[in-house]
Amino acid sequence: MRLNQLLPKAKSPAGKRKNFVRTQIPRSENLISVFLLILMAGIGIAISIKGKHFDPDLYSVNVASLKSTSEAVEGKTQTVSASTEMDPSGGKSPISAQAVPQAAASPDHPEVTPANNQTTGDPEGGAESGTNPAPAPKGDPMEITLEGIKPMSPTEFYNADTLYEKIDGRSPAYQNFHVLTLRCRTFSVIAEPGSFVDVYEYSFDSPVDAFGMYSLERDPKGKPLDFIPDGYSGEMGWFFRRGVVYVQIIASDEKPKTIALAESLARNRAKVLPENDAGLAGKRSLPSVGLVADSISFVPENAQGQAALKDVFQAKYKVDGGQLSFFIMATKPEEALKAWKSFQDFCARFGKVTILADSNGAKVFSAQLFGNSKIVYVRGGEVGGVYDAADPLKAKAFIERYLKGELK
């Protein structure tokens, strides 16, 4: 007996499924496969031939369907004359003269372009339907008589709405300080071919706003100027406030002749522009003894986080090897007292307040708040004090000396 007859039969891995292998393919299936291959090849050839021949009638314009767009619209300035026919051949249609008004050149502004002729404030340069763009801002040309320079370009003029065209992302800060106009011009340095100096003059609605913008952009590393109080110089620039004007003089390079002429231009503008310090009483009250150079800043509102403190001037002072921060607001006596009481209530709500003895006609309180000390006074139309001081005794002594007139 054979061995395989003694062993049990193994089950098929497929279970009850029958093993089936198709050895012949029906003729019908072969014919269908051949037909499909021929059909796909034919479609490919047709697409290739069609793509090489353009049919101009396929995308022709139905002029009749556009007739309504050439008719005048009631209550709106028409953009296409009713007599204008659209050229289907691709030619440009003439536009009504009313649609794009042209600004005439003037001696004050010899070059007028679509960019600087827009005064609508629309960043995209568009005007509202039915309205014409306002005329470009104008003013007196910047004529500077100074040996060694000559104008390189005409004077440019911008107003608050068009300022973004010249300084782009910085314009909102200027608008917050109520800028009115920008007048600028470029002057070439005769002795240095290719060198030039840019002169920017920003006019604001008040000396206070001009100072505010100047202090906001001030470089703490700048060097004080010896010919004007509110000014400093950098590596290639001179920046200062004169009256309602914030001036920027910027040299193209650090060549000695270029730098010398840039400084001469700065001195010229500081001398020629009219002086006006109206509204800067608070700044004038800041003592000069111990004043850290170029530390004066202007806060138009919400100084010290207080809504009642507006148009505040702040500065830092060197005191006994350290520094103290001091602020002043000049206003009407009733407004000053109101702000002082409001500040006192705020400090009492979030810290500890102590009413100090009057000093030379001033009411004074001290406060411990958020780990620092404040000494705040009010006298007449002036409210001020030391804030965020690490040493309350030094802060108190500073205020007492100021109120006694020892710090001027």
How would you portray this structure in words?
With 408 residues, the protein is of the alpha+beta class. The protein has helices at 3-6, 27-51, 164-167, 171-176, 207-217, 256-272, 281-285, 333-350, 392-403; strands at 149-151, 156-159, 179-189, 196-204, 223-224, 231-233, 237-242, 245-251, 297-299, 312-319, 322-330, 352-359, 362-369, 372-379, 382-389. A hairpin with a 2-residue loop joins strand 7 and strand 8. 26% of the residues are buried.
Biggest sheet record: 8 strands, antiparallel
Instruction: List the helices and strands in order.
Output: HHEEHHEEHEEEEHHEEEHEEEEH
Number of DSSP helical runs: 9
Structural classification: alpha+beta
The amount of helix comes to 25-40%
List how many beta strands DSSP finds. Answer: 15
Shape: flat
Cα Rg: 39 Å
